[in-house]
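User: Sequence in, structure out. Go.
Assistant: Echoing your sequence, followed by the structure tokens.
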Amino acid sequence: MSESLDLTHSDLAIQDKAFINNEFVSSASGKTFENLSPIDGRKLADVAECDSEDVDCAVKAARVAFKDGRWSRAHPKKRKSILLKFADLILDHAKELAMLDTLDMGKPIAYTERIDARATANTVQWYAEAIDKVYDEVAPTGDKSLGLVTREPLGVIGAVVPWNFPAVMASWKFAPALAAGNSVILKPAEQSPLSALKLAELAAQAGLPEGVFNVLPGFGETAGQALGRHMDVDMVAFTGSTEVGKYFLVYAGESNMKHISLECGGKSPNIILSDVPDLDAAARAAGMAIFFNSGQVCTASSRLLVQKDIHDEFLEKVKAVGDYMKPGNPLDPNTKMGTMVDQTQLSRVMDYIDIGQKEGAELAFGGKQVNKETGGAYVQPTIFDGVKNNMRIAQEEIFGPVLTTLTFEDEDEAVQIANDTIYGLQASLWTSDINKAHNMARRLKAGTVNINTTDGGDMTVPFGGYKQSGVGRDKSLHGLHKYTQLKTTFIQLS
């Protein structure tokens, strides 16, 4: 890894202002915050630090746009055409968006180009295509009445998104919200605001009217809280930690009972039965499911449950994946694993590695901070063995490349261990027996259960969690419907 990375990128335009009413503006207070790259700690920009005054301004612009119908009552064909153009522009600027996310959070450029930028465009395109394919309903009344059930946009939507997939997570919120006819205020994570601001520029180029799509960089405790408490925001859609998600439930209750959608934390089990169809494929998937994106994935399969008789052989194969996923320069196209998002998250991960050893788990692989000379936030893939499910490293979301390995005797014990957590976002199960697969899937308390994969699903299926992993769903038509409210029009016929 080179000691000095080229982060100048003179041909890369970095936007550092907020976007309100189709204009880039400084924060009302004039305050900014440093945006640092975790690749080597270098400052990328001084970004506008928005707070409640900026939120008021954006909400006012969004409400005016919603009430006059420039977007909310625009013909479905028009909204579809504009969002399709938006998707095309995202693809046209995919390399730029990818570079911004790589610089912002240290994700390998190969992944941001191949996965994130394309997934963002695909999300916008998918919801654009859905606009003129969502039908209302006619109730089955008698012939003396007519019951119409119609969907209407909610109004002003606050979207508060995390830093691990900055552009993708944003699109999961704003694309269906816009498709439904709402006005949107996007609050990106303070660690990764740059791609959101670029998306704002592209949205305006695509033809989204003034006030319909606004982006406010800033901190959760100020700008995020102001959105959550605002009396003229109709809904907040949030992805992030369970701890912060609960704040938004409080904010809604203490303000206007706004709609709340939460996609929160996870501690996903990955269950490997002894009749696994392909041990090598399952081991590769198990390693990638925790080391991809440096473990900064809400669905990361961080709890590996292996049936006892294959434990030793399987774990050796997973260690080989850890050895393959060496942290390196995220700007190198060959790098498989980049950095933690910042020094704070690096410290959190290292603290948990220390906790795991103190709890009595065996540090079977990795566990060290590396590439310190760069000033970046790099940590090795880490594997713990001999873990008990009541240990903190087995129960708490670490959000780093730390795998906890547990063993089980039979299917009942596997399900019991898997469900013994406050989370329920995703679970994975590997078996050759279709009956076991179906029966265990029904018993696993998770919003998604993968069979013989750890990364199932696409835009056609809903995504969200059970228990304290949240409420509501992203993706699919369910993800569009949540940004609408139902109206019944009941007509008495004479």
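User: And one key feature?
Assistant: The radius of gyration is 23 Å.
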